[in-house]
Specification:
It is a single chain. The protein contains 2 helices and 11 strands. It has helices spanning 2-20, 172-190; strands at residues 24-27, 39-47, 65-66, 69-75, 78-85, 88-95, 103-112, 118-128, 133-135, 146-149, 153-161. The strands form 2 sheets. Strands 3-2-7-11-8-9 form a 6-stranded mixed β-sheet, with no helix packed on it. The chain has a 5-stranded mixed β-sheet with strand order 1-4-5-6-10, with no helix packed on it. The radius of gyration is 19 Å and the shape is globular. The termini are far apart.
Length: 194
Amino acid sequence: MRKFFYIIPLLLTAFVFLESCICSTTNTKSSFTSLSIPINVIWSETSYIDPPLLYYMGEANPYRKKVCFLSHSFRDETYYFRVVSGDDSISFTIPKYYIGSNVDSVNVMIDWAADRSSIFIVHGCTWAMHGKWFCRGSRPMNDFCGITATKPVHVAVFVLSKLGEPNNEKNIYEFIQENQIKRLDSIIQSLPEP
């Protein structure tokens, strides 16, 4: 009877892993701190015309999911993610400014695309309606992000924040503004003197 109690947790863990396709995570070594928050990945076998932002709006539910594996690292103020499933793989980069000090989890949704790959980040999200809907997230953004894949995919990254906890780090809007000021300053410096 005692053996039965040890087998049940193992079977439940295996079932949850296969059904939810929350990818196993490997933190690759780097000279910077890696993400210590949960990173959840769902790779759907479905193909949508639009990016998989529909999942978290309650309009789509990926019934068929691929088993996948995730690794990530951090360098040069950028997070590098790689998701592998069989012969298919995706690599994408996200500036650290999308992921603040108040982040609860990073949730990655992947589905097939018709012709070219795309990535969108929705940051500052909070759950509502018992986890069925995302609300109060930013507009979808892809500034300073990159993506490559063996086949075209849509990737949506939802950065879930802890409710009521402020972000104490520089955010993406501040980073974009600083970058624009640097570019303008560079243009002004390159102009010949009158």
